[in-house]
User: What shape does this take?
Amino acid sequence: MTNENILDAIGGINEKAVQDAKAYKRPKSKRWFRWGAMAACLCLVIGIAIPILHHKGKGGIDHQDPLQDTAAFELNGKFYEVVETPEVLEKYGLPSKITEDVAGDHVAYLKSDGDDSYECTPIETDMELYQYNPAASDGVYVLRDGEAWYAALFCNFYQFDSNTNCSLTELYRVYGIESADDIKSITEMDNNNENETGTPVVERQEITEFYNMTIALGSYGNDDFQAEVFGNIPEEKLQEAHSAFAENQRNLRVETKDGLRFFIAFYPSYNWIYGGGTMSYFKIDNQMRNWIERNVG
Assistant: This one.
């Protein structure tokens, strides 16, 4: 699957974001610390939901994926992007500049795989991965390359095929959420996940209901989702249907008690949720719909 096909796949993709992503040209240098800030992964910078991200080879980045245009690596079945852009860091609840002060326990040493991605190694190198000390979790790590410091942000789970799916419980655990008590607030955001468009939900009862309802929602992989939503639509009308679905996207920012942030998209007219990084869709039931209407309209 080519990058263009992935970007054209349905999944809440803003049209301008698609065109910007298609127009992106990889810088000639392959040293990630020279261009990582400019080419932070699509799912972090432009906030699009890409439902098909099929990694054919275990243990590395498939070069058909958008991840090839950023510094990335796999760790324990999850893909991470190396980021230093202040705006991106702040969006995810991190300080605008990563320094040694936020580095916690040692996690692993990294080495270049000879291209633009990296892998763990038992041999000591000058690239080292640490826990993020203010909020240790799988959602963010700190990466040192010599004297330079970066954040490694969770992008998505490893995909075995285009229908792999998981529960929202797994996404929550990435950010250290084991119960509703670990969630500080839930806020509706604009299309770019940059500005709040609603009042933060902070009432404990509402947060508890949100957590309990979302972890109980049925999970669909991309293939099953496509069949469920678009399977009966004639081919000549598919593009129009895809556009209508994408335009219906609204976003929620979930902030943990430790200050980390991540985003979930929902499509109120279609009764679907897309869990960022899960590559999965979740069908909204009546209880979840009532929560949405009550808290975000």
Q: What stands out?
A: Residues 168-295 form one domain. The chain has two domains: 3-157, 168-295.
